[in-house]
Amino acid sequence: MYANQSILIGYSGHGFVVAEAALEAGIDIVGYADRTIPENNPFGLTYIGVESNEGFEGWKMDVSFMLGIGDNALREKIARLVVNHNKKLLAVISKAASVSKTAKIGDGTFINRNVSVNAFAEIGNNVILNTGCIVEHECVLGDTVHIAPGAVLAGNVTVGERTFVGANAVVRQGIYIGKDVVIGAGSVIINDVPDGMKIVGNPGKYI
Ligand SMILES: CC(=O)SCCNC(=O)CCNC(=O)[C@H](O)C(C)(C)COP(=O)(O)OP(=O)(O)OC[C@H]1O[C@@H](n2cnc3c(N)ncnc32)[C@H](O)[C@@H]1OP(=O)(O)O
């Protein structure tokens, strides 16, 4: 079994946020992996190496892994690398988030401060629920979705994999959003959105 020890992959920007939440939640971060060593190491973490390099030390350690990567495509790629090494991806849930006991949370998912996840919501793997977003009852989110700060998904919304919902966007109840969709900041989505579309404004229009 894995101890409560974990390696963070990606240690800048979003990675800093994940690191802070993980430390507050009592996770022991044994180090970080990244392609570069950042000048700024705000949590004094130990550098382990580059996860994609041959002989990466982290794969030999009895630890889980956390995803500190904001970009959906890259996060999906790195998550696959971790799983292919038979390692566990840890879900990181901020102590300041409010998550229903009836909700399902996938591996490798990050839930930031002031997020609300309501009854029977199902959150996939490697998802980011960013600061203060609201995921209402029975929403279903695919893998590697990112719900940006302050966005609101009303009840029974479905979001396909790798879709990005911009900051402060609002999605009406029961709406189906496909995969690889980009929803602009502040948009209001009142109709279903097919795969691969980019949509902005109130009401949402395709661009
Ligand atoms: C912790 C964090 O920081 S998480 C990240 C949070 N960040 C966000 O939520 C930002 C989300 N991104 C956006 O809203 C972006 O504007 C996108 C992705 C929707 C569009 O970006 P781009 O593809 O570069 O489009 P671009 O900026 O060229 O705009 C294209 C048109 O759409 C309009 N537009 C772009 N974004 C929006 C928006 N959010 N709402 C309304 N209209 C918009 C532009 O005004 C422009 O209109 P025009 O052609 O009439 O001039």
UniProtKB/TrEMBL annotation:
Keyword Repeat: yes
Keywords for the protein's UniProt record, in alphabetical order: Acyltransferase, Repeat, Transferase
Domain called PglD N-terminal: residue spans: 7-80
Chain segments annotated as coiled-coil in the UniProt record: none
Gene3D superfamilies linked: 3.40.50.20, Hexapeptide repeat proteins
Family that this chain belongs to: Belongs to the transferase hexapeptide repeat family.
Name of the protein described by the UniProt record: Acetyltransferase
Organism: Flavobacterium suzhouense
NCBIfam families, sorted: NeuD_NnaD
Matching InterPro entries: AcTrfase_PglD-like, Hexapep, Hexapep_transf_CS, PglD_N, Trans_hexapeptide_repeat, Trimer_LpxA-like_sf
Superkingdom of the organism of origin: Bacteria
